[in-house]
What we know:
This protein is of the alpha/beta class. It has five helices and six strands, in the order H-E-E-H-E-H-E-H-E-E-H. It has helices at 2-16, 49-64, 78-87, 102-107, 137-152, and strands at 25-26, 39-44, 69-74, 94-96, 117-122, 127-132. The chain has a six-stranded mixed beta sheet, covered by helices on one side. The longest helix has 16 residues, at 49-64. It is globular, with a radius of gyration of 15 Å. Mean pLDDT is 85; it is low at 1-21.
Amino acid sequence: MKTSILTIIALFMLTACTPDKDGIQAYRESEAMPNAQINIINLWASWCQPCRQEIPTLSAFATQHPEVGVIGIALDQKPNVEKFLHTTPTTYPVRYHDQDATVVFRRFGNNTGGIPYTVIDAPQCGFRQPFFGVISTQQLEDGIAQAQRQCRR
């Protein structure tokens, strides 16, 4: 039963998170993050090979952990992001931002401007952990566990 529910959730997310007839949406600085106690925000670009490498890891993690909010923000042109997502769909929502990337970097604490950049954020308890470079499943699991421990205090 649990497996079938997760399969339904994964299929729903897959259809909801690939470009539709109107394409993907632009990221807005005022946009709320996923409605979860703990969120993963991934900054990436379609031209960035390390970024492309970590997308399947993030997709698998999002499917296995539906209680965690995951969003990707592509710092790239909309057509490039849509083309990439048609060949490599995600199981989590993706937005694009084709303006000044420093706005996005600043919001999520990326002072160097490097990508890929992932942050685990639990705003209710003040937890924020950044990761530069390709993120692994183990790093995601460890970061989520740390956030959960801090939020239980």
